[in-house]
Amino acid sequence: MKVRFQADADLDGRIISGPRRVAPEVDIRTAIDAGLAGLTDPEVLRVAAAAGRILVSQDRRTMAGHFASHKTSSLSPGVIVLREAIPIATAIEQLVLIWSASDAEEWIGRLVWIPL
């Protein structure tokens, strides 16, 4: 199955639109489309998991801990956290690489920091 992304509410909009410009077929759902505004991290993880989408977040402070708790009781399609000060172009390139070179099954239960 092809990788599908879920943008967290904190994700820079350029990182959502960039992959679509490079590869229009990349499936990345916005936080607005998913109704994530005002949800807690555990709720965001549940929404992404229910939709079978890898969560992409810039929440370096708390998301990793919430993901660790989440995966003890639920299966997760995975989480990608962007490292601090990652250039926008690098984030876009890495997301497109993940989308084009891997399958969704490879990311199940994984937390990955990018750049890789």
Protein described:
The chain is an alpha/beta fold and 116 residues long. The chain has one domain (4-114): Rossmann fold (3-Layer(aba) Sandwich), CATH 3.40.50. The chain is built from 5 helices and 5 strands. The protein has helices at 13-22, 31-34, 41-51, 63-73, 88-101; strands at 4-7, 27-29, 54-57, 79-82, 111-114. It has a 5-stranded parallel sheet, with helices on both faces. It is globular, with a radius of gyration of 13 Å. The two termini are 22 Å apart. The model has no long low-confidence stretch (mean pLDDT 95).
- How is the CATH topology named? Rossmann fold
H/I helix tally: 5
Give the amount of beta strand, in percent.
Answer: 15-25%
The stretches of 5 or more residues where confidence is low (pLDDT under 50) are none
* CA-CA gap between termini: 22 Å
Q: Roughly how much helix do the residues carry, as a percent range?
A: 40-55%
Name given to the CATH architecture: 3-Layer(aba) Sandwich
Shape assignment? globular
Strand order of the main beta sheet, please? 2-1-3-4-5
Derived from helix and strand composition plus strand pairing, the structural class reads: alpha/beta
What is the alpha-carbon Rg in Å? 13 Å
Q: Can you tell me the number of structural domains?
A: 1
- Most strands sheet: 5 strands, parallel
Helices and strands, in order, run as EHEHHEHEHE
What's the β-strand tally?
A: 5
**CATH first level: which class?**
Alpha Beta
The chain-level mean pLDDT equals: 95
